[in-house]
Protein backbone atom coordinates (compact mmCIF):
# COMPACT_ATOMS: atom_id res chain seq x y z
CA UNK A 1 0.00 0.00 0.00
CA UNK A 2 1.60 3.25 -1.13
CA UNK A 3 1.38 6.37 1.03
CA UNK A 4 1.01 9.77 -0.54
CA UNK A 5 4.35 11.61 -0.63
CA UNK A 6 3.13 14.38 1.67
CA UNK A 7 2.01 11.89 4.30
CA UNK A 8 5.43 10.21 4.48
CA UNK A 9 7.29 13.47 4.86
CA UNK A 10 4.79 14.61 7.49
CA UNK A 11 5.40 11.41 9.43
CA UNK A 12 9.16 11.98 9.25
CA UNK A 13 8.71 15.52 10.54
CA UNK A 14 6.49 14.32 13.40
CA UNK A 15 8.97 11.56 14.25
CA UNK A 16 11.84 14.08 14.29
CA UNK A 17 9.84 16.44 16.50
CA UNK A 18 8.98 13.58 18.83
CA UNK A 19 12.63 12.58 19.15
CA UNK A 20 14.37 15.97 19.21
CA UNK A 21 12.07 18.94 19.89
CA UNK A 22 12.98 19.59 23.52
CA UNK A 23 16.67 18.90 22.91
CA UNK A 24 16.95 21.51 20.17
CA UNK A 25 14.95 24.11 22.07
CA UNK A 26 17.13 23.58 25.15
CA UNK A 27 20.37 23.76 23.17
CA UNK A 28 19.28 26.92 21.35
CA UNK A 29 18.18 28.61 24.57
CA UNK A 30 21.38 27.55 26.36
CA UNK A 31 23.64 28.86 23.59
CA UNK A 32 21.61 32.07 23.39
CA UNK A 33 21.91 32.60 27.17
CA UNK A 34 25.66 31.94 27.17
CA UNK A 35 26.21 34.34 24.25
CA UNK A 36 24.16 37.11 25.90
CA UNK A 37 25.82 36.74 29.30
CA UNK A 38 29.30 36.45 27.77
CA UNK A 39 28.66 39.58 25.70
CA UNK A 40 27.52 41.41 28.82
CA UNK A 41 30.67 40.42 30.71
CA UNK A 42 32.94 41.45 27.82
CA UNK A 43 31.15 44.77 27.40
CA UNK A 44 31.19 45.51 31.11
CA UNK A 45 34.79 44.61 31.91
CA UNK A 46 36.58 45.44 28.68
CA UNK A 47 34.57 48.36 27.28
CA UNK A 48 33.07 49.69 30.55
CA UNK A 49 29.63 49.56 28.98
CA UNK A 50 26.69 47.23 29.37
CA UNK A 51 23.53 46.00 27.74
CA UNK A 52 20.51 47.14 29.76
CA UNK A 53 18.42 44.16 28.62
CA UNK A 54 20.89 41.26 28.91
CA UNK A 55 20.01 40.18 32.44
CA UNK A 56 16.31 40.27 31.67
CA UNK A 57 16.52 38.26 28.43
CA UNK A 58 18.83 35.71 30.07
CA UNK A 59 16.37 35.30 32.94
CA UNK A 60 13.47 34.77 30.53
CA UNK A 61 15.44 32.26 28.46
CA UNK A 62 16.29 30.42 31.69
CA UNK A 63 12.59 30.30 32.65
CA UNK A 64 11.80 28.76 29.25
CA UNK A 65 14.66 26.24 29.72
CA UNK A 66 13.22 25.17 33.07
CA UNK A 67 9.75 24.36 31.71
CA UNK A 68 11.00 22.75 28.50
CA UNK A 69 13.45 20.82 30.69
CA UNK A 70 10.56 19.34 32.68
CA UNK A 71 9.19 17.87 29.47
CA UNK A 72 12.63 16.62 28.45
CA UNK A 73 13.08 14.95 31.85
CA UNK A 74 9.73 13.20 31.50
CA UNK A 75 10.56 12.15 27.95
CA UNK A 76 13.85 10.57 29.07
CA UNK A 77 12.21 9.29 32.26
CA UNK A 78 14.86 11.09 34.30
CA UNK A 79 12.49 13.25 36.33
CA UNK A 80 12.60 13.11 40.10
CA UNK A 81 11.11 10.00 41.55
CA UNK A 82 11.19 8.00 44.73
CA UNK A 83 11.93 4.40 43.91
CA UNK A 84 12.05 2.95 47.43
CA UNK A 85 8.48 1.63 47.15
CA UNK A 86 8.91 0.33 43.60
CA UNK A 87 11.95 -1.71 44.63
CA UNK A 88 9.65 -3.80 46.83
CA UNK A 89 7.76 -5.10 43.79
CA UNK A 90 8.46 -7.30 40.82
CA UNK A 91 8.56 -5.76 37.36
CA UNK A 92 4.77 -5.86 36.83
CA UNK A 93 4.17 -4.04 40.12
CA UNK A 94 6.83 -1.46 39.21
CA UNK A 95 5.08 -0.79 35.91
CA UNK A 96 1.71 -0.37 37.67
CA UNK A 97 3.22 2.05 40.21
CA UNK A 98 4.89 3.91 37.35
CA UNK A 99 1.53 4.20 35.55
CA UNK A 100 -0.14 5.53 38.71
CA UNK A 101 2.62 8.09 39.31
CA UNK A 102 2.50 9.20 35.66
CA UNK A 103 -1.29 9.58 35.84
CA UNK A 104 -0.96 11.70 39.00
CA UNK A 105 1.75 13.80 37.34
CA UNK A 106 -0.49 14.09 34.25
CA UNK A 107 -3.35 15.43 36.38
CA UNK A 108 -0.94 17.95 37.94
CA UNK A 109 0.34 19.03 34.50
CA UNK A 110 -3.20 19.47 33.19
CA UNK A 111 -4.25 21.54 36.20
CA UNK A 112 -1.14 23.73 35.88
CA UNK A 113 -1.78 24.12 32.14
CA UNK A 114 -5.38 25.17 32.77
CA UNK A 115 -4.43 27.79 35.36
CA UNK A 116 -1.41 28.85 33.31
CA UNK A 117 -3.61 29.61 30.30
CA UNK A 118 -5.90 31.60 32.61
CA UNK A 119 -2.95 33.63 33.93
CA UNK A 120 -1.44 34.23 30.47
CA UNK A 121 -4.80 35.56 29.30
CA UNK A 122 -4.89 38.13 32.11
CA UNK A 123 -1.32 39.49 31.87
CA UNK A 124 -1.28 42.99 30.45
CA UNK A 125 2.09 44.44 31.39
CA UNK A 126 5.41 44.56 29.56
CA UNK A 127 8.91 43.71 30.73
CA UNK A 128 10.99 46.58 32.06
CA UNK A 129 14.05 46.59 29.80
CA UNK A 130 12.87 44.77 26.68
CA UNK A 131 9.31 46.08 26.76
CA UNK A 132 8.00 42.76 25.45
CA UNK A 133 4.58 41.51 26.58
CA UNK A 134 5.00 39.41 29.73
CA UNK A 135 2.57 36.87 28.26
CA UNK A 136 5.55 35.48 26.32
CA UNK A 137 7.40 34.78 29.55
CA UNK A 138 4.39 33.24 31.29
CA UNK A 139 3.65 31.19 28.18
CA UNK A 140 6.73 29.09 29.04
CA UNK A 141 4.72 27.42 31.79
CA UNK A 142 1.87 26.56 29.44
CA UNK A 143 4.09 25.30 26.61
CA UNK A 144 6.26 23.30 29.01
CA UNK A 145 3.27 21.67 30.68
CA UNK A 146 1.60 20.88 27.35
CA UNK A 147 4.81 19.17 26.18
CA UNK A 148 5.02 17.41 29.56
CA UNK A 149 1.42 16.22 29.13
CA UNK A 150 2.27 14.77 25.71
CA UNK A 151 5.33 12.99 27.13
CA UNK A 152 3.38 11.63 30.10
CA UNK A 153 0.67 10.24 27.80
CA UNK A 154 3.43 8.59 25.73
CA UNK A 155 4.96 7.08 28.89
CA UNK A 156 1.61 5.83 30.15
CA UNK A 157 0.85 4.26 26.76
CA UNK A 158 4.29 2.63 26.71
CA UNK A 159 3.76 1.26 30.23
CA UNK A 160 0.37 -0.16 29.28
CA UNK A 161 1.96 -1.83 26.24
CA UNK A 162 4.67 -3.29 28.51
CA UNK A 163 1.96 -4.70 30.79
CA UNK A 164 -0.06 -6.03 27.87
CA UNK A 165 2.94 -7.67 26.22
CA UNK A 166 4.32 -8.95 29.51
CA UNK A 167 7.73 -7.29 29.12
CA UNK A 168 9.76 -8.02 32.19
CA UNK A 169 13.28 -7.41 30.95
CA UNK A 170 13.43 -3.60 30.73
CA UNK A 171 14.32 -1.34 33.65
CA UNK A 172 12.30 1.64 34.82
CA UNK A 173 13.45 5.24 35.15
CA UNK A 174 17.00 5.35 36.44
CA UNK A 175 17.70 1.63 36.12
CA UNK A 176 18.90 1.54 32.52
CA UNK A 177 22.44 2.56 31.67
TrEMBL record:
Residues 34-159 form the Tripartite ATP-independent periplasmic transporters DctQ component domain. Keywords: Cell inner membrane, Cell membrane, Membrane, Transmembrane, Transmembrane helix, Transport. It is found in: Cell inner membrane. The keyword Nucleotide-binding does not apply. It is a multi-pass membrane protein. The chain crosses the membrane at residues 21-45, 57-74, 95-117, 137-157. Belongs to the TRAP transporter small permease family. This is TRAP-type C4-dicarboxylate transport system permease small subunit.
